[in-house]
Amino acid sequence: MSLTLGLHRALQQTPDAVMTVYGRRTRTVREVAARVARLAGALRDLGVGAGDRVAMLSLNSDRYHEYLLAVPWAGAVLNPVNIRWSIREIAHSLADSDSRVVLVDDAFAPLVPGLRERYPQLRTVIHCGDAATPADALSYEDLLDSTDPVEDARRSGGELAGLFYTGGTTGFPKGVMLSHTNLVTSALGAAGTGFMYRPGARLLHAAPMFHLADLSGWIAVTLLGGTHIIVPAFDPVAVLSAIERHRVTEVLLVPVMIQALIDHPDLDRHDLSSVRAVLYGASPIARPALERAMAALPNAGFTQAYGMTELAPIATLLGPDDHRLPGLLSSAGRAAPHAEVRVVGPDGDPVPTGTVGEVVVRGDAVMLGYWNQPAETRAALRHGWMHTGDGGYLDENGYLFIADRIKDMIVSGGENVYSVEVENVIAAHPAVAACAVIGVPDETWGERVHAVIVRRQGADVTADEIRAHTKALIAGYKAPRTVDFAESLPVSGAGKVLKRELRKRYA
Question: Which keywords are on file for this protein (predicted)?
């Protein structure tokens, strides 16, 4: 298994088919293959050897697509950088991974002087934007024009394919080591369900391409000979326009993106009938938002994916048929074809059906380990199982229900409160656009349930009304004792709410 396999297959079978669409640029499979082979040659000429890490700090683009293929083609290792990080965090990840070559686009070229100051070992910067190349960088297009193509190194199987740094929701990011087998197994497992990523798919890249959720779709569609429609970053108008103009068939969105689309006043003015599959995940979604999205895209089958970077990234899937059963809308689905899922207690033994424990996963998609962190690796990988740190339970039919991150569970007055349950109830209030529930220190209760809420535009609601609404639906001790209203919630590059940042405010 190899990340470059799909390009070789497409070059043999459909060389003149369009492979990428980015703005006004379209490139065929044959054109992409030629550019990838030249970029790989340029990387080798710049001193990139087998197993060396090559970083990418960029918004989505067709050149990002080429980077994902050229780095393994050169025999090197991918290091896609989280675009929401500070200079300090980016420099740390480059130093931690020993990435000496970095590709940057126009949006991030201004960060290069600061990165060089914090990470003097940065040897080469390749500018992959469309504006003028900065003085301290090499031109991406000039490198391609002046370099001969090289043969694919055919890096594959258990060899390291990439370092993918975790989103940092619970601490400083760790480099997750994923092999070619890890990544391809997860992508093919998802495609094998038939829920999405079918042959001929036209996948819209609106989620960030540095993230595993988008990358998994990229791998599947590349292997199946599909077309990649790429927008630089999520924007409701850009997404709606791209779907209509390019007849997009598959789209991956995180819940905050879904909310932004269904709330946009121009939603009904665009023809979205081409969309046949919507994959969502990365964080829980409020049931009202999901139901509105399903109504807005009636031709699309909705699939929820649950997983994590360490699982490359998919563990379970809730398919389109499951979405038609109201009792399952709060489920994360059942184990994907490539994964085995259990819920275990502190001793590592499976707990009874319906009992909350820790979700663990086994299979060929499970990471190799954490880069340069053997102790962290041993703690996460035990007896062949990846311990996710998520609390959940399985029902009698194998459907997984996520209760909470174990670290996010609130213990108030001796009672366990799962923040996800409270968030789902609060989100059902018509005046709520988004919310996050955390535990904050309390002299009486140890921790108290606290909600941070973003009101829907033009709506008004008070803390007392939120508490009354919550108490009408779940036990009183689970209702937020305190409520704050905010303009927005802090989110990671993958769209996950950063509860760590919220906790800092109330520590």
Answer: Ligase
pLDDT band (50, 70, 90) for residue 170: very low
Q: Please indicate, yes or no, if residue 293 is contained in any of the structural domains.
A: no
CATH number, position 499: 3.30.300.30
Decide if 495 contacts 254 (C-beta within 8 A): yes
Q: For 78-104, write each residue's pLDDT tens digit.
A: 999 988 888 888 998 999 999 999 999
343, two tokens: 């819920």
Q: Which two tokens stand for residue 338?
A: 């490539």
In a shared domain, residues 349 and 437: no
Does residue 469 share a domain with residue 379? Answer: no
Q: Which residues of 46-82 are buried (b: 16+ CB within 10 A; e: fewer)?
A: bebeeebbbbbbbbbbbbbbbbbbbbbbbbbbbbbbb
> How far does the chain reach from its first CA to its final CA, in angstroms?
47
Question: Which residues have C-beta within 8 Å of that of residue 110, sequence separation ≥ 6?
Answer: none
pLDDT for the residue 282: 62
Of 388, 405, 422, the residue at which a domain comes to its end is 405
What is the mean pLDDT of the segment spanning 278-293? Answer: 79
Distance CA 294, CA 144 (A): 44
Residues 65 and 130 in one domain: yes
Q: Distance (Å, rounded) from C-alpha 157 to C-alpha 489?
A: 40
Residues 397 and 414 in one domain: no
Does any domain span residue 224? no
We report the CATH number of the domain holding residue 153 as 3.40.50.980
What is the residue type of 89?
E
Are residues 436 and 401 part of one domain?
Answer: no
Sign of CA dihedral 342, 348, 352, 358: negative
Number of helices (H) and strands (E), helices first, in the chain? 15, 27
User: Of 354, 372, 405, which residue sits at a domain end?
Assistant: 405
Residues 242 and 228: their CA atoms lie apart, in Å, by: 11
CA distance linking residue 469 with residue 357, whole number of Å:
29
Place of tokens 């639906």: 473
| DSSP string for 158-225 | TSEEEEEE---SSSS--EEEEEHHHHHHHHHHHHTTTSS--TT-EEEE-S-TTSHHHHHHHHHHHHTT
Peptide bond into 313 cis (omega under 30): yes
Instruction: Name the nearest CA neighbour of 475 among 431, 436, 417, 426.
Output: 417
Handedness of CA 420, 425, 428, 429 (dihedral sign): negative
Residue 307, domain member (yes or no):
no
Mean of pLDDT values over 186-204: 95
